[in-house]
Specification:
The protein is mainly alpha-helical. The chain is built from 10 helices and 5 strands; from the N terminus they run H-H-H-H-E-E-H-H-H-E-H-H-E-E-H. The strands form 2 sheets. Strands 3-5-4 form a 3-stranded antiparallel sheet. Strands 1-2 form a two-stranded antiparallel sheet. Helix 2 crosses helix 8. The longest helix is centred in the N-terminal third of the chain and has 19 residues.
């Protein structure tokens, strides 16, 4: 996305603020006060945090990743859908590979424990028959390795890659300043020790690096809440381990 790429390429925080403001203003201009031509719109993306807090976009209904809503199943493939695909004779999948694929690509859970699989990885597995880490193809974060070495973050990462869970604060209304803090952290990790880990882990959660631990959360429909999260599966686990 324009905003996502600008996080790395724009040199000053003020320019990044202007890019975010311009991008959201353009969307708002199209969707608002244009009732003759536009009934509504659908905004898709992996992270919604730059969009909220702008008056131009105050009418957005957010159906976030892993939140409880009617579109949850469309963020991936359900277990039933995956099992049906894996049984199709035209794919001729090795039984041991199927077992490992379930471990590698499942694990995303909603607050109430509903599960979905990584659709991209499942489709790649069906095409190649190989259980591999396809994660780096579409969800890598630049300069993540340097951040993971900062003591303030390393203690959390070490716990996650050991298979344990951590408690973090998740918000669905991150601000532009949060995005700028994240940018500064990724570009200059040596000064990141002063940052509270919440900004980074919110970003990791929204990109699918983390998932809820079921039955240990507050009710859905939150703005800010303390939640328990873990790495969802072996595919993401292997990717994070390589970034340490």
């Amino acid at each position: 996305s324009i905003i996502g790429q600008s996080m790395y390429d724009v040199k000053s925080a003020e320019k990044l603020r202007k890019i975010i403001a311009l991008s959201t203003s353009m969307i708002g201009t199209v969707l608002k006060n244009n009732d003759i031509f536009v009934k509504g719109g659908l905004i898709t993306g992996v992270a919604d945090m730059p969009l909220f807090g702008f008056s131009d976009l105050n009418s957005i209904v957010n159906y976030g990743f892993l939140k409880e809503h009617e579109f949850f199943n469309y963020y991936g493939l359900t277990k039933e859908e995956v099992e049906e695909l894996f049984k199709k004779p035209e794919f001729d999948l090795d039984p041991d590979a199927v077992r490992r694929a379930h471990e590698a690509y499942n694990g995303y859970q909603s607050v109430k424990g509903k599960k979905i699989y990584n659709i991209y990885a499942v489709l790649r597995f069906l095409k190649t028959g190989q259980v591999k880490t396809y994660w780096t193809k579409f969800a890598s974060i630049k300069k993540l390795r340097g951040v993971f070495k900062i003591p303030a973050f390393k203690q959390y990462i070490d716990k996650l890659v050991s298979g344990k869970s951590i408690s973090i604060v998740i918000t669905d209304k991150l601000t532009v300043e949060d995005v700028i803090d994240l940018r500064n952290l990724l570009l200059r990790p040596q000064v990141g020790i002063n940052y509270w880990p919440a900004v980074l882990f919110n970003f990791l959660f929204k990109l699918g690096y983390l998932t809820y631990m079921p039955h240990r959360q507050n009710p859905a429909g939150y703005s800010v809440q303390q939640v328990t999260v873990k790495i969802p599966n072996t595919e993401v686990m292997e990717y994070i381990q390589k970034q340490r």
